[in-house]
Write a structure and sequence with these properties.
Blueprint lengths: L7 E3 H8 L3 H9 L6 E16 L4 E7 L2 E7 L2 H10 L1 E4 L1 E2 L6 E5 L6 E4 L4 E3 H11 L13 E3 L5 E4 L2 E4 L2 H13 L7 E2 H8 L6 H4 L10 E3 L4 E4 L6 H12 L2 E3 L9 E3 L2
Antiparallel strand pairs: 1-9, 2-3, 2-4, 2-7, 5-8, 6-7, 10-11, 11-12, 13-15, 14-15, 16-17
Length: 262
């Protein structure tokens, strides 16, 4: 029997689906491109409208609902959550102008933590429809990506792009890591190693959007050099490393021996 579809998703789930860091989802939310919510249970609320005539505001109470399920958060609440890790929330976002939805005044507000933030299925699907994809842009074929030795110049699809010293240093570190058994590197550690003052890798590269063609994110704060930006030989070696396959040693083939690629 097929399982029912989920009505909402944690930020880490959406970030993984879209191949981006959770911090990028937070940026979209602050820019009001993506609406985040919190799940509530049996929360007494007040709903109404208001009008201003220049000297005073007139409030009209329309309903006293009991809220259950996802409730959309205001940008002011999200800003506090992202800055402090949590916020007391007493108001929720409404679609119609000059309307409000508050926690009832005789009830305490709810404490919303970063881990409580969710994206509804409807909001996730809307974002995907408007932006035309369910994930980050497909990396370009390896033949269309080339670079100089220090990664200050990278050619993608026939167009050259320049990277600053710290940006290039991150790319070099990730390229070096691609030759290890575990190619993933912590973003904060990368920034510290190159002496960057930004708090996120996305901020370091924000003026060079092509970086997403070169770097993959796991949605949990780690990054690796894009597999398709590696040479075919290097990708083949990594494939054997993961699979632990044995391949013939050409020099000893006549003796019927096998050598494992390490």
């Amino acid at each position: 029997m097929p399982l029912p579809q989920k009505r909402w998703f944690r930020l880490a789930e959406v970030a993984k689906r879209w191949s981006m860091a959770v911090s990028d989802l937070e940026d979209y939310a602050l820019d009001e491109m993506l609406q985040l919510a919190v799940f509530v249970v049996d929360l007494p609320a007040e709903m109404g409208s208001w009008e201003a005539d220049g000297t005073r505001e007139c409030v009209s109470v329309q309903d006293l609902p009991i809220l259950n399920g996802p409730q959309e958060l205001l940008r002011s609440s999200l800003l506090t959550i992202f800055r402090d890790g949590q916020a007391e929330v007493r108001a929720f976002r409404q679609q119609e102008p000059k309307t409000y939805l508050h926690v009832r005044f005789d009830v305490s507000g709810i404490l919303v933590r970063r881990d409580d933030l969710i994206v509804t299925r409807e909001e996730r699907d809307r974002f995907e429809r408007e932006h035309g994809a369910t994930s980050a842009p497909e990396p370009l074929p390896v033949a269309e990506i080339s670079h100089n030795d220090d990664f200050t110049k990278v050619c993608v699809a026939g167009e050259w792009h320049s990277f600053g010293p710290k940006q290039a240093a991150v790319l070099r570190l990730l390229k070096l890591a691609s030759e290890a058994d575990d190619p993933w590197r912590d973003g904060k550690r990368l920034l510290g190693d190159v002496g960057a003052t930004t708090l996120r890798v996305a901020d370091l590269f924000k003026r060079r959007p092509v970086w997403r063609q070169l770097v993959q994110a796991d949605g949990k704060g780690s990054y690796r050099f894009a597999v398709t930006a590696l040479s075919p030989e290097r990708r083949r070696i990594r494939l054997f490393r993961r699979a632990g396959h044995l391949v013939p040693n050409r020099g000893a083939a006549k003796m019927g021996t096998l050598t494992q690629i390490r």
